[in-house]
TrEMBL record, chain A:
Residues 2-228 form the ABC transporter domain. One of its GO terms (molecular function) is ATP binding. Signal peptide: none annotated. The keyword Glycoprotein does not apply. Belongs to the ABC transporter superfamily. Part of the ABC transporter FtsEX involved in cellular division. Has ATPase activity. Homodimer. Forms a membrane-associated complex with FtsX. This is Cell division ATP-binding protein FtsE. It is a peripheral membrane protein. Keywords: ATP-binding, Cell cycle, Cell division, Cell membrane, Membrane, Nucleotide-binding.
Length: 229, 302
């Protein structure tokens, strides 16, 4: 599903590569934690998958597509198959829960009938039934993140990328967020989650890929966050 | 669905930058109106030229009794002098035709020309009107030898070349159209910059929305279209105002000029006005689209 082959990324005006000859394979339906300190290259990894950045060398395949050969014109179609969740939720403050989720479908031109059918289903999946007409500022952080997950998942992507989704949320609420991610993973969606949260990684017992200074230092299935932390 | 979404976005964008939008509308309106006026004057001038150059002639006025022109010495032209002049004119190279206009014909023409002021007509008698020769030339541009040949001859009071008179007027119109077009170009440039700024502000105001649109895979066209439409709509509203200004100009300026020339002059028709409005609107919209796209490429990474 995601295939990195010897990928190196150096940002302009920086000597040290953000990713240094990284090779990794993520299969369909896998749940992968991407761990490592700040600046270790986790976000760069996610941005490369979205083709928001281009690697300096190496090949990246996502959902069977060679990103180097994917024309800019087709990048939006790639992104429709990838859902994204961020630490800061990125909801539209002037739209309610339903509208925020529906927005993702409206802007890719889905018919209104389809939107009316699937949006309530997804809102229920993330556990926000009955709150469809709340505005984001009326919701707790955990609830806002659930809206963001609903928006990321509403188009049934093949891959869900989560960049520290529990970073702004207290540990008790984080468990609920992880349950939703697990539920999404069980529908067959590949989930890649970058995180600092050792407790969550340890409790989930999923595959762990650890980055340090842009290099993969550990890749183990059913791993934990690591002894050093 | 799609159109609905885009138009609501466009409306929000226009309302958020209301003052900027007004500035764009005014600049586009004045710029396009100037462009239109310049084009209309050009059309009018070329129409007048074809109309008048066919009719250009040289008038050789002959002395009347008590004429104030020094060359006449206050004496009327004698029939012998008239005969000699006619022969001389007909013998010149480049002369196509020579008409003789006697005092009665001149008086009739004068009466029709000054119908509007009966006091003037009443005060003028047939004897006051000068006899004249009207000379048509093979080449209207080559009037100099003919004028030189009859000027100062006995019995000639004045030689008038119509082309010189008309050219002065055409030169004035040409200058007017040149200045209108120059101002139009400056204003069009200003409009393009203003539109660029408006679009940049809009893109900044809506960076959250566009960021999410990018993320969920909205196509570039879908993301950019509301911004481009914003520019186009502002440009179109400006174009409508420009059209109104052009229609008013046609009524107030060109029909005034036509009235000044009298009936029978080639008039600028509504079809030319419509054509000019279409052209200016087209140019306005194209400029808006270009300015928007160029700005978006810089400020809205897709």
């Amino acid at each position: 599903m995601i295939h990195f082959d010897n990928v190196t990324k150096v940002y302009a005006n920086q000597n040290r590569p953000a990713l240094d000859h990284v090779s990794v394979d993520v299969d369909k339906g896998e749940f992968v934690f991407l761990v490592g300190p700040s600046g270790s290259g986790k976000s760069t990894f996610l941005r490369l998958v979205l083709k928001e950045e281009r690697p300096n060398s190496g090949a990246i395949h996502v959902a069977g597509k060679d990103l180097a050969r994917l024309s800019n014109f087709k990048v939006p179609h790639l992104r429709r198959r990838i859902g994204c969740v961020f630490q800061d939720f990125r909801l539209l403050p002037n739209k309610n829960v339903y509208e925020n989720v529906a927005f993702a479908l409206e802007v890719i031109g889905k018919p209104r009938r389809f939107i009316r059918k699937v949006v309530p289903e997804v809102i229920e999946l993330v556990g926000l039934e009955g709150k469809a007409h709340r505005m984001p500022d009326e919701l707790s952080g955990g609830e806002q993140q659930r809206v963001a997950m609903a928006r990321a998942f509403v188009n049934r992507p093949m891959i869900l990328l989560a960049d520290e989704p529990t970073g702004n949320i207290d540990p008790a609420t984080s468990i609920g967020i992880m349950k939703v991610l697990d539920r999404i993973n069980r529908t067959g969606t590949t989930v890649v989650m970058a995180t600092h949260d050792a407790a969550i990684v340890d409790s989930m017992r999923k595959r762990v890929v650890e980055l340090e200074d842009g290099k993969i230092v550990r890749d183990q299935s059913r791993g934990v966050y690591g002894q050093a932390y | 669905m799609r159109a609905n979404f885009i138009f609501s976005e466009v409306w929000i964008g226009l309302r958020r930058n209301l003052t900027m939008t007004i500035a764009v509308v005014i600049t586009v309106a004045v710029g396009m109106a100037m462009l239109g006026v310049g084009l209309l004057i050009n059309t009018q001038v070329s129409m007048l030229k074809t109309f008048w150059y066919d009719k250009v002639e040289i008038s050789v006025f002959l002395c009347t009794k008590g004429s104030a022109i020094p060359a006449c010495n206050g004496k009327a032209v004698t029939p012998a002098q008239t005969k000699a002049l006619e022969a001389r004119l007909k013998g010149l190279q480049g002369v196509k035709e020579v008409f003789y206009e006697d005092q009665t014909t001149a008086y009739d023409n004068f009466k029709t020309a000054y119908q509007g002021s009966p006091t003037l007509v009443e005060a003028t008698r047939v004897e006051d009107m000068p006899q004249s020769f009207r000379v048509k030339l093979v080449d209207p541009d080559n009037y100099q030898p003919v004028v030189q040949a009859v000027k100062g001859q006995p019995g000639v009071s004045q030689v008038m070349d119509h082309k010189q008179l008309i050219n002065k007027f055409f030169d004035m119109l040409d200058k007017l159209s040149f200045y209108a077009l120059a101002v139009a170009i400056i204003l069009v440039l200003a409009a393009a910059l203003l539109i660029g700024n408006t679009v940049r502000l809009s893109a900044f105001n809506r960076r959250r929305e566009t960021g999410i649109m990018r993320l969920v895979g909205a196509s570039n066209l879908y993301i950019q279209l509301p911004f481009v439409m914003e520019g186009v709509i502002a440009g179109l509203i400006g174009g409508v105002f420009a059209a109104i200004i052009l229609i008013v100009t046609k009524v107030l300026l060109f029909e005034e000029i036509a009235g000044y020339f009298g009936s029978g002059m080639a008039q600028l028709g509504w079809d030319s006005v419509a054509q000019t409005i279409t052209v200016t609107m087209g140019i306005g919209v194209v400029i808006c689209v270009l300015a928007s796209f160029v700005t978006l490429r810089r400020y809205l990474r897709v």
